[in-house]
Design a protein that fits this description.
Blueprint lengths: L1 H5 L3 H14 L17 H12 L14 H12 L5 H10 L16 H16 L19
Helix pairs in contact: 3-4, 4-5
């Protein structure tokens, strides 16, 4: 009954009950993350040094570090496989954040951008469905 209410397996409920019986409520507290960071602090410092060299060092033409590129550098340098989200978490945990350009591109033409937003964007946005009562059913022929 408890397993159903908590939406867990009966085996999980039994395991938790056994832990409770042996150690009380404190034994059920979180033990922290299931795995430790795979890059040590020393290795992360080495990664930062590699990133400071820039993407061109690794053959990319532009000067943007993407999560995918950092993942590739980690794989080449440390022979470890990270997921894209794992790379993001690693960087955030070590004080890195998403960056945006500090200034606008010199080539930017503000008048052309304003014209595009005013004239082209409304057409590109497309027409929206008319607001009318209807059915959300995809199988109902009368649904809009």
């Amino acid at each position: 009954m408890i397993a159903k209410d908590l939406r867990v397996s009966v085996r999980s409920e039994q395991r938790w009950r056994q832990v409770w019986d042996q150690g009380g409520p404190r034994a059920l507290r979180s033990q922290g993350p299931a795995s430790l960071p795979r890059l040590s602090e020393k290795q992360f410092a080495q990664l930062e040094a590699e990133l400071a060299k820039g993407p061109a060092m690794y053959g990319w033409e532009d000067q943007r570090w993407t999560l995918s590129r950092v993942k590739t550098v980690i794989g080449r340098r440390f022979h470890l496989t990270y997921t894209i989200q794992g790379v993001r978490k690693l960087l955030v945990r070590n004080g890195w954040s998403c960056q945006v350009p500090a200034r606008r591109a010199m080539e930017r033409d503000d008048e052309a951008v304003a014209g595009w937003v005013k004239e082209v964007w409304p057409c590109a946005e497309g027409s929206r469905r008319p607001v009318a009562p209807g059915s959300s059913s995809r199988t109902k022929p009368a649904s809009p």
